[in-house]
Design brief:
By secondary structure, this protein is an alpha/beta fold. The protein has one domain: Aldolase class I (TIM Barrel, Alpha-Beta Barrel), CATH 3.20.20. It contains 10 helices and 9 strands. The chain has a 6-stranded parallel sheet. Strands 6-7-8 form a 3-stranded parallel sheet, with helices on one face. Homotrimer.
Amino acid sequence: MTTRQTLPENTSESRLVVVLRGQRAEDLPPVIATMAEAGVRSFELTLTTPDVFALLPTLITEHGPTVDFGVGTITTPEQVNEAVAAGAKYLVTPVTDPAVIDRALDRSVPLIPGGFTPSELFSSWSRGVAAVKVFPAGRLGAGYVKDLRGPFPDMVVVPSGGVDLDSAREWLAAGAAAVSVGGPLLGDALKGGDLGELAERTRAFVEVCTGTGSRSRC
């Protein structure tokens, strides 16, 4: 019998993963602090941002156990090792890569591999990963989750790519375990945008995803 990974507790309970894809690592901490204060409990730092592995331990120390930090855009087994060494609570891939899945399972780190078709998603899910990422979700719509849960009722699905406030509500209502959100929430925050406005947007997403609008557990 396949042993099933599970999503980290903060990520599973909050049902919201914020994807941070910046041009500079130093732009991330103030944005993360603002969003964590507004209720975000799970951040995916992508490897397209330079120096993520160096930044991650500092973020983990600063924010403590109430926030999960994952690493995204993982495409090689070596990156799995580096992410685990840096303290990542979970990993995310843009595609279905058997070698990356093998390494993540070997290292016992929760993995959310990306896929688009039912075959891709099931090939990952059948290996025992924590969840599967539907990407790019904006091309499909929330009805896709309902369709998937027909033949795969236990599949844990996290849509990513093009998820805004309205579609987040729709995806969750359709059965998604969480939503992965980037640009529609972040806006221009990583380019010096207004952090007060970011906090307002964040609270709206948190309320949709958890029903609380605060850092309290749902």
